[in-house]
Amino acid sequence: MPNPTDNPPLAGRRAQAARNDATILAAARAVFLDDPKAPIAAVAERAGVGISALYRRYAGKEDLLRTLCHDGLLRFVAAAEEAAAEPDDWAAFAGFLERVVDADVHSLTVHLAGTFTPTEEMGRAAVRANELVDGLVGRARRSGRLRPDAVTQDVGLLLEGCAAIRVPDPDRTRELRRRHLAVLLAGLAAGGPALPGPPPAAGELDWRWRATGK
Amino acid sequence: MPNPTDNPPLAGRRAQAARNDATILAAARAVFLDDPKAPIAAVAERAGVGISALYRRYAGKEDLLRTLCHDGLLRFVAAAEEAAAEPDDWAAFAGFLERVVDADVHSLTVHLAGTFTPTEEMGRAAVRANELVDGLVGRARRSGRLRPDAVTQDVGLLLEGCAAIRVPDPDRTRELRRRHLAVLLAGLAAGGPALPGPPPAAGELDWRWRATGK
DNA sequence: TTCAGAACGGAATGCTTCGTTCCGTTTGAC
DNA sequence: GTCAAACGGAACGAAGCATTCCGTTCTGAA
Question: According to the UniProt record, which residues make up the DNA-binding region (chains A, B) (predicted)?
C-alpha cells in the first residue's frame, strides 16, 4: 500500500502499476462515497482502468471495501492528532470536527460498515480514534467552553448528522456541512439549557460494526 | 385512502379488506423507513398478508412508494399546522421540529425521493409545506429568539441531520434525535457568532426530486 | 342452501444487476 | 528476441426482485 504522495518519476509498466494503486483507491473512495452500493465496475471505470486491474490488487469487493475503510480510519486518526496539536482547547475541538467533516471521512466509514468483516488492526485503530476524540472532548470541557453535559459520543451523532447533508456539487456540500457544523458548535458551547434524555453511551453507536448482515 | 383512525366494528371479508388498507400502508412505512430499497415482499410479510393483497391495491412498487410519500408529506403539513397553533413563536418553531423528528416523516420523504415520479398534487403539498415552514421561521426570527442569519432552508439541513441518526432500537433512536435536536436548537438561538458560507438557497435541497435516475 | 366472485396466499416466471473468472493482447525488462 | 507482469473487457453464473398466475377460501346475496 504505497504512500499516495509518492511521485515516482519512473516510466514504464512498473511505475504505471504503482501509480494505479493510488488511482484505484482514490476512485473507489469517490465512487463509494457517492453510492455505498455501487458496483465494482463503476470503480474501474472511474479509475480509467479495466476490471482485472482491480482484481489483481484486491481479492474481491469485500477486500477493497475493507482497505478503503481502514484507510478512512487512519485519516480520521490523523485528523484527530493534527487537531490535538492546537494549543487552544476549543480550537482543537472545533478544528478536529472541521477536518473530519471536510475530508468526508465519517460518511465513508459509516456507510461501509457491515459490508465486510473488520480486521483486528482496524479494531485497534478504532480504539485509538476513540481515545483521541475523548481527549479532545475532555480538553474542551475542562476549558469551560464546551457545555458540561456533552459527552464524547455526542461527537458521533454530530458527525453522522453532518455527513447526511449532501447536494450534487461536492464543494457546495462542504459549505453546507460547514454551516450546519457552525450551528452545532454554537449549540455545544457552554451556557445552553440541559440536554434531554440519557446521553449516548459508549458503544451505542457502534452497532453497524457488529454484524455483517445487511 | 381510508382514514387510519377508522375503526369499523364490521366483521367479514369486506371489513378485513378495509383494515388491510391501513395495515399495509403502515407496514410499508415501517419497512421502507428501515430500508428504502427493501423488496415489496418484505412489506407483505410485515403486514402479514400475501403479495397479491398488495398488488390488488397498488399498480406496482412505484405506486406504493408514491402513495407512501404523499402520505408523509401530508403528515408533515399537519405537523406544521398543529405547531403553528402554538401562541409562543419560539415554542411553535421548536415544537414543529420535535413533531417532525419524532414522527420520522422527513427521512421517509427524503430517502424515497427519486424512486417515483411525483404527482402534481404532491407538488402543491410540497409548496404548502414550504410556506408553513417559512411562516414558522419568520415568526421565530421576528420574536428575536431565532438567530437572524438562519434561513428557512436551514431547517432542511437540520431535519436531514436528525434523520441520519439511527440505532437499532426505534425508541432510543427517537431519544438520541431529540438530544441532537436540542443541541441544534441551542445553536439556532440568537446570540451566537455568524454562520459561515452563503446560506442554503430555496430549491437547493430539492435536487432529489428533480430526476428519477439514481 | 347455493353460488358468483371478491380477496387472498404464495409459487412460478422472467428480467436485471453484479461479482468473479477467463482469455487474448500489450509492453517493459533482461 | 523472449518472457511474463499488467491489462482490457467479454462471458459466465448466481442472486435478488418486481410482477404475474392460479388454485383456494369465504362473504353476501339470491
Answer: 39-58
